[in-house]
Design brief:
By secondary structure, the chain is of the alpha/beta class. Helices cover 42% and strands 18% of the residues. The chain is globular and about 65 Å long.
Amino acid sequence: MINRKVVKEFLSRKLDSFDWLKRESVSAVKAETDSLLDSGLWWAHQRVCFLLLVWLKRFMLFIDMGGGKTFIVLSLIHYRKRKKRQPQAIVFVPYLTSVATWIDETEKHYPKMVCVPLTGSKDNNLHKLLHAEGDLFVICYQSAVAMMAEPVKKVGKRKKKWTINPQRVREVFARFNILVMDEVHRCKTVSSLTYRLCRAISAKCEYVTGLTGTPFGRDLLDLWPQFYLIDFGETLGPTLGFYREAFFKTEINYWGGFKYSFKQKLLDKLQSTIKNCSIRYSIDEFHDMPPREYIPRKIETHSGIQSYADKALAVIRGIQIQKSAGNYRAVESEYMKLRQLSSGFMTLHGDDSAKIQVAFDENPKLDALQELIEDMPHGCKMVVFHHFVYTNKLISQRLKDMKVGHACIYGGSKDPLRELRRFRGDERVRLLVINSRSGSSSLNLQHANYVVFFEQPDSAIDRQQAERRCWRPGQARRVFIYDFLMKGTADRAVYKANKAGESLLKNLLDGKVKL
């Protein structure tokens, strides 16, 4: 238990806020930045953010998608290069496809700077990291963790575990003086190897920048790890426990143990506190956007799928009534079964315990997608988001049967960057079928104005970011966003949870909702 007097003093601190810069005239901001920047088209908010990165060195930019976060950071690197400061930047991105965005933006804005993509094997990435010449090196979080993770000595039959050696990390990344964490909310779990890796690098870098448009959904605990990577506790406290003590109340969890609920009366205090090390720009503050239209499409379930869905729903309801400790895994299993059934397949276990996906002969969602594609105007393109890997195969097969040109990006894609280029550059490729996690971050897809959520993302953040891949600055057309919702399954409940910024699965496990 942390001393209440210490907590009270922490909450009553006087901290900085940089919102005053938003109120400065465009001409004043321009006069302050013209001597620092090369000529070019700059929005006012980009100039403000650039100034803050130069002045403060360690800062968070909460800018909605399309606000030019990548451009701002590239300009910082270029500025330091012009000042003979020998910048060496390591940029972490959420997915392999995100690497392409940094390559493209570097070539577009600063073609003389060298951007080194780290998209190969562990050994190849490590060799480039240590020996290649470049101004910035771009690698996805998962690849960096795979490159640096070390196995923990196994004891008995314990499952193999991995760890991060901070000293080893600092040795490998010793050449870098700028750390950029794109979509920094990917580092929200303090026990993850991703967080530990970034913490070790952040401790030695002079400039550290966190970028995201959505730092959290409804769980405000996610904020502390992100801010700690920037300022090591100055803003939100020295430990996660201290932050919880200051802003949350402890309650008994539905399945046993404890959970932490935010103290709503402190919302204004938290909002003012995080301004000490961040600035927020919503899309409405920097651009006039074309309208977007949301179209929920209710789809009838055929009898074969409905019978399995009814059984899964009955199991979940029965477990919730019993409130048996440990049964949360059974709830999660049936929930995933419901999600798969809504897309026309289910996963079975074979004789050798291997998982086998079995598709139903009739798939109303695929029929609805086919109808929508056939009605899509000539010259338009569509992005179809899905959740499960197998769904990508189902959709792709239907598109092949329709003889519709399309590109596919999912966890098993051999060359996702090539697929992305095909969708952007080939007018015959009208559709991009992409996983909602890998496709929700750092992609510019504003040349498409039809968006379909074949399956709902499990994360409200992924949902918000996914739809803004197309509805973003540069989009000239009205954007149509379709949600395919299969009746009698969990689709509508997941859809409503995402709109509320919540997780349906978490609410089920906490006993807050019933299906």
